[in-house]
C-alpha cells in the first residue's frame, strides 16, 4: 500500500525555501524548527527601508504588509509544485505567493536569501527574496511576537495581538493588532527599561479584532513600567511592574 503524504519533490522544494547556512552539527531538529524559520525580505524602498517582510510558519504566513500598518496572519494552502522552473505557488482568495528556488533577483540579498518571492496582495505585486532565517546575537533591530501574558495565551486572529521591535537607540516600537506604534519607555543593554510617558502612540486603523486589540493593549500598558527583559535564544521574557511575565517569540 502506498503511504499517504506529500511527494518527495514537494518536500525537497519546501526544504529549499528555508535553505541558507546549514545548521550546526548536533543541533536538535526541534530547536531548529522553533528558532529559525524561513523568512522573506522585500525589495528596499527609496530610503533603504524594506517595502515588506514575512515569516513562513507551518500552514500560515506572518506578513508585515506592504500596503498598510501592522502584521497579518494569513492561512496558506498546500503549495502547487512546478519543476521547470523549480517553484511553489501558495494561492487562495486572499493571497498569491510564488517562491522560485535559487532565483533571487535582488543582488544584495542573493547570498543569504537565494530564492525569489513574488507576492500578490491587496491589489499589488511585490518582489523579495526568501531563505532560512538567522537568529541574531544582538537584540537591537529584532522583532518579536507576543505569545502569552502570565498564563494566558495570546488570541489568534487576523493580526498578532502585539509585536515588539527593539530599536538601535533604545527605542521600543511595534504593533497593536493591525496598528503600528510605539512608547516612550526605552530599553537598556543590561536587561532593563527606562520608563517614559504613558500610552501607546499608534496609527488609527480599525482592526475589527477586539480580542487581539484588548490583549495587545494589556501588553503595551504593562511594558510602559516594565522592570526587566531577558532573552533565551528565540524566547523573550519581560517582567512587568506587577510581577506578571510576558513571553514573546522571535520573528525576525
Write structural notes for this entry.
This protein is mainly beta and 252 residues long. The protein has two domains: 125 residues, no CATH class; 108 residues, Lipocalin (Beta Barrel), CATH 2.40.128. The chain has three helices and 20 strands. The strands form three sheets. The chain has a nine-stranded antiparallel β-sheet with strand order 4-3-2-1-9-8-7-6-5, covered by helices on one side. The longest helix is centred in the C-terminal third of the chain and has 15 residues. It is globular. The N terminus is likely disordered.
Share of residues in strands: 35-45%
**Shape category:** globular
User: Using DSSP, what is the number of strands?
Assistant: 20
* Strand/helix succession: HHEEEEEEEEEEEEEEEEEHEEE
Describe, in short, the structure shown.
The protein is mainly beta and 252 residues long. It has 3 helices and 20 strands.
Amino acid at each position: 500500500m502506498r503511504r499517504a503524504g506529500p511527494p518527495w519533490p514537494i518536500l525537497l522544494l519546501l526544504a529549499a525555501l528555508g535553505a541558507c547556512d546549514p545548521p550546526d552539527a548536533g543541533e536538535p531538529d526541534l530547536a531548529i524548527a522553533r528558532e529559525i524559520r524561513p523568512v522573506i525580505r522585500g525589495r528596499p524602498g527609496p530610503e533603504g527601508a524594506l517595502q515588506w517582510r514575512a515569516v513562513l510558519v507551518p500552514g500560515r504566513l506572518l506578513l508585515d504588509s506592504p500596503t498598510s500598518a501592522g502584521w497579518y496572519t494569513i492561512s496558506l494552502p498546500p503549495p502547487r509544485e512546478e519543476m521547470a522552473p523549480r517553484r511553489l505557488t501558495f494561492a487562495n482568495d486572499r493571497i498569491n505567493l510564488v517562491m522560485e528556488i535559487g532565483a533571487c533577483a535582488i543582488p544584495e540579498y542573493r547570498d543569504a536569501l537565494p530564492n525569489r518571492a513574488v507576492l500578490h496582495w491587496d491589489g499589488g505585486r511585490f518582489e523579495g527574496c526568501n531563505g532560512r532565517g538567522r537568529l541574531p546575537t544582538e537584540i537591537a533591530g529584532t522583532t518579536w511576537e507576543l505569545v502569552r501574558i502570565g498564563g494566558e495565551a495570546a488570541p489568534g486572529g487576523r493580526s498578532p495581538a502585539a509585536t515588539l521591535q527593539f530599536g538601535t537607540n533604545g527605542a521600543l516600537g511595534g504593533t497593536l493588532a493591525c496598528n503600528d506604534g510605539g512608547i516612550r519607555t526605552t530599553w537598556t543593554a543590561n536587561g532593563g527599561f527606562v520608563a517614559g510617558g504613558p500610552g501607546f502612540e499608534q496609527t488609527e486603523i480599525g482592526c475589527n479584532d477586539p480580542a487581539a486589540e484588548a490583549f495587545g493593549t494589556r501588553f503595551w500598558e504593562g511594558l510602559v513600567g516594565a522592570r526587566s527583559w531577558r532573552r533565551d535564544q528565540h524566547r523573550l521574557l519581560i517582567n512587568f511592574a506587577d510581577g506578571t511575565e510576558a513571553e514573546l517569540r522571535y520573528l525576525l
